[in-house]
Structure formats: C-alpha cells, structure tokens
Design goal:
Blueprint: H1 10-13, H2 22-31, H3 37-44, H4 48-60, H5 65-87, H6 107-121, E1 126-131, E2 136-142, E3 148-155, H7 156-164, E4 168-170, E5 176-181, H8 183-195, E6 198-201, E7 212-215, H9 240-245, H10 258-274, H11 305-320, H12 324-333, H13 338-345, H14 352-371
Antiparallel strand pairs: 1-2, 1-5, 2-3, 4-5, 6-7
C-alpha cells in the first residue's frame, strides 16, 4: 500500500518508521536536527516554500494532544539516534543505530490496528475518546438506551499515529478529547480493506445495514441449497445489533439490552481480529446449519492475538450450539441482516430477532462465566 508510506530526503528520513508523513519528517529534521529548509527542499525535490508550508502546518497542529505527543516521541527518538551516532568513536566500524522506540508503532501494527479502529469509527455516532495520561484509547458510541457502548480499545500510541496521519480529528478540547474519522481516514480505510482482501459489495437486501463490504471477491447471491458460496459481508455504517437495539418492546424497554449488545460486539471484535492473520485461512461454515455444514474445521495454526481470537470465537460458537451459533455468526460476525438470515434459513418473518436475542443471552452467560460480568473488550 504505497500511498501510506511517505519518505523524505536523506536529512528527513532518519530512524523514523515509514508511516511518518513527509511534512512531519521535515518538521523534525528542521526543529530537532537544525536542517535548513533549502537543504530539505533539495533532498525532497520540491521548492523551499513547500517545505516551509509543511513545517508551519505541523506546528499549528500541536494543539492536538495526540499530535503533540507523537511528535515528542519521534523527536526524542531522532535525538537519541543522532546523539548515539555522534558519540560513537569514528574508528568503530560496528556502529549501530538504536532500535525504534516500542512506544511508536511499526508499519504493520499501525495498518492492522488502524483498520480495526477506523471501521468502528465509521459506525453511526462512534467517536474515539482519549483521556490525558492514559495508555489506551476507546471507541464508544451512543446506545439506544442513552448510555455509551464501548466497541474497541486501542493503544494510545496507535491513536497518536492516526492523528498525525490526519485520519482522525478532535471535536473538542479538555481532559477527555473525542475524535471523529476524517475524509482522509475513510480513504485510508478503503485502501486497508483492499489490501486485506475486503472489497466493496452490493447490499443484497440487508435492510439494517445497507453499505456492505466482503472478504475476498464477491460470488453470486447463493440459492437456498447453495449457501456455502456465501461470503462474510462486513458493513461499515451500522451492525444489525445496533439497529435491533433501537427497537422497543410493548412496555417501552429496548428489545436488546446494552449487555446483550456488548456480548455480540465482543464476538464480532474477536471475529475481526481472527481475520488479521493472512497466513491462516478462516472457514466457519461448519457452524452454519440448514444444510450448510461443509465438514471443514477452523484452523488452529498461527500464533499471537489472531490465533487467540480464533480460539475464543470457536469456544463461544461451540457453547451456543447448533442453530444459535448460526444466527450469531451471521448477524454478529458476518453482519448479515435479519431479513436475509430469515430467508436463507427458511424462518418466518420477524422470528429471527427472537432467536438472535436467545443466542445473545446465552453468549452473555458464556462471557460472564469465562471473563466475568461486563468483561473488557479485546484490543
């Protein structure tokens, strides 16, 4: 994904990761190393006024706490590398450059985490909340009950990099700052989805979530007896749970409580993280019923967070059992609309929401028993 890798000239590159924008590289080279603007311009092959505008633009953005924090980290890392280089005796042929700071994400980490967070920020009413001096940021959105639902957690270092890339912008000032996704962030998300094999797909009758994305290339709409051709469709705008949670029972209470929505979102979070390991093929078809069992198993290969997430999804679906795991996988993970699910499973109209609520109740009980009531989302 070449458009996300921005490099400057020799004086501006230094020990910084590739994701650092050219303007920020010039800013650090000029303010930390004292590199003249004309020298930076010659190295970058542009006019000096262009570099000057880049530097001024970055300086004006330091009122943003995330941008200020990441510029401090990048400046400190640049100074440390420069000091080490100058202090090493010239005869030492094995001179080494210090390793990048662990507080600064590498390119792979930023791509993986940013895609996950940007997708959440595209949901209706979602913001990234960052508190001063906290090492984590959270994505929250307003629930139909009026409370806020947490849908993702991300390291503050990743949020800082996203702010420097102008993928998110602050909506307020104060101790807790809320960030919205920007136009540049949506464009970056589209590039990430394409890189990870998720291409835009038509809606196919999902009333609750009209804008859809899918894993891999889209296949024709499957028939009732050929549902194995189904692809996991991942809407950006809103999940079926969010739409269903806005509905009310006859007594005025929400059809889905915040706790049930949280359980479904946790399953979805694990499911999405499990897809991040491109070396292991994901196949969940054997959890689907109504003639969709393929006999294939979910691979347990791989390691790290994606492998752990696969294991959690597999355990949760096995706990739900046949039938309930089907509707949970379709609506919570594939984000398939209830109308589509009812049609494919041959259910009567408006019966899917009842089965889904039962599945979420059992899923909540599973999470309460394994991670405790209101257990944290992964991230």
């Amino acid at each position: 994904m070449g458009q996300h890798v921005e490099t400057g000239g020799p004086e501006s590159s230094g020990p910084l990761p590739n994701w650092v924008p050219t303007g920020a590289r010039h800013y650090i080279a000029h303010t930390e190393n004292g590199a003249p603007i004309r020298v930076l311009a010659r190295a970058a092959g542009c006019h000096a006024s262009t570099v000057l505008r880049q530097i001024r633009k970055v300086e004006m953005r330091r009122d943003d706490p995330l941008v200020d924090a990441v510029l401090r980290k990048l400046g400190n890392q640049n100074r440390a590398a420069t000091a080490t280089t100058h202090s090493v005796y010239k005869k030492d042929a094995k001179m080494k450059t210090p390793a990048p700071s662990k507080a600064i994400p590498d390119d792979a980490t930023l791509a993986r985490e940013a895609m996950r967070v940007l997708r959440r920020l595209c949901e209706r009413g979602a913001v990234l909340a960052v508190a001063a001096d906290m090492d984590k940021a959270v994505v929250v959105r307003d629930a139909p009950s009026g409370n806020s639902t947490r849908s993702a957690v991300v390291d503050a270092a990743v949020a800082q990099a996203m702010a420097l890339k102008d993928w998110i912008s602050p909506a307020n000032t104060g101790r807790i700052v809320r960030y919205h996704i920007t136009t540049a962030g949506r464009a970056a998300l589209a590039d990430f989805l394409e890189e990870f094999g998720m291409t835009p797909a038509p809606a196919s009758g999902m009333a609750e979530a009209p804008a859809a994305f899918s894993y891999g290339k889209m296949a024709p709409e499957p028939s009732e007896d050929d549902i194995s051709a189904n692809r996991a469709r991942m809407p950006i705008g809103e999940s079926p749970l969010s739409a269903l949670a806005r509905r009310r029972d006859k007594d005025g209470t929400p059809f889905l409580s915040d706790a049930l929505v949280h359980a479904g979102e946790r399953l979805r979070e694990d499911f999405e993280l499990a897809q991040m390991d491109a070396s292991v093929a994901q196949n969940w078809d054997h959890f689907l019923t109504a003639g969709t069992q393929s006999g294939s198993a979910v691979g347990n290969n791989g390691s790290g967070a994606p492998a752990e997430a696969r294991a959690r999804v597999k355990t949760a679906l096995e706990h739900l059992g046949q039938g309930l795991s089907d509707v949970a996988l379709r609506c919570c993970c594939y984000l398939e609309g209830l109308e589509t699910t009812e049609k494919r499973l041959g259910w009567s109209a408006r019966s899917g929401k009842i089965v889904l609520r039962i599945a979420l109740m059992r899923l909540k009980r599973h999470y309460d028993e394994t991670v405790g009531p209101g257990g944290p989302m992964i991230g």
